[in-house]
Amino acid sequence: MDGNGRWAAARGRPRIAGHRRGARSVRRVVEASPEFGITTLTLYAFSSDNWGRPADEVAGLMDLFLGYLRRECQRCVDSGVRLSVIGRRDRLGPALIEAIERTEARTAAGSTLHLRLAVDYSARDAIVRAAAGLRDARVPSVEEFSRRINEATHSAPCTPDVDLLIRTSGERRLSDFLLWESAYAELLFTACPWPEFGKRELGGAIREFHRRERRFGRLHRGAQLVGSSSSENPSAGARRVSRIGVGR
Fold it and tell me: Band of the pLDDT at 158, cuts 50, 70, 90?
């Protein structure tokens, strides 16, 4: 969710003001997601590398996360939104951990949308810790290793892969976000800064997704192999987007 700080700086305001404005975009996108058939929305709120930012900005972000969880918990319950936080927790403050656990427990029954906030998250770190848990020379299946990654990040055991990954404010890289889960994700980069991202921008991203052809290494319907009349059908549901990640 890039562009909060730059959005604020362009208006002569402190960076934390941009992060607060970005929290409004979170609400807009969360409220709009079910209308577009999205079932899982993952927002990259704070990467493990972000600990290197100025201490006052980090403290402000942690306060913002805590306030968001306390303020939005009941709204999530009422809207059927299940909220989870993925990433490490050993470096978070006790009050924030308590708020995370309480919010996750209270919203666990939500079925309208699974909202995941990535806090102190690093995809590389998750993969390394999952690999460290292997106890023998046997090569695990993709499904088994995926479960290990989920365990390393406090993710639900059967969290599906990403269909569409959106990055805002003109950035064009993955920045250690859901690397394993985004193996076949469609990537969309937009110049729109996160504080200005809302339902209209999300709808445009979904329309762009539906214009793309997803083959997952196969051929699209009706395509012919060289020297053959056979063809392969695309994966079931290839034209449907349901799982989105918004990276920073």
Answer: confident
Task: Share the mean pLDDT of the chain.
Answer: 90
Domains plus CATH for the chain? 4-214+241-247 (3.40.1180.10)
Enzyme catalytic residues: 2, 50
| pTM (predicted TM-score) | 0.87
Give the DSSP letter string of the chain.
Answer: ---HHHHHHTTT--HHHHHHHHHHHHHHHHHHGGGGT--EEEEEEEEGGGGGS-HHHHHHHHHHHHHHHHHHHHHHHHHTEEEEEES--TTS-HHHHHHHHHHHHHTTT--SEEEEEEEEE-HHHHHHHHHHT--SSPPPPHHHHHHHHHHHTT--TTPPPPSEEEE-TT--S-TTSSTTTTTTPEEEE-SS-GGG--HHHHHHHHHHHHHS---TTSPPTT---TT-----PPPTTTT---EEEEE-
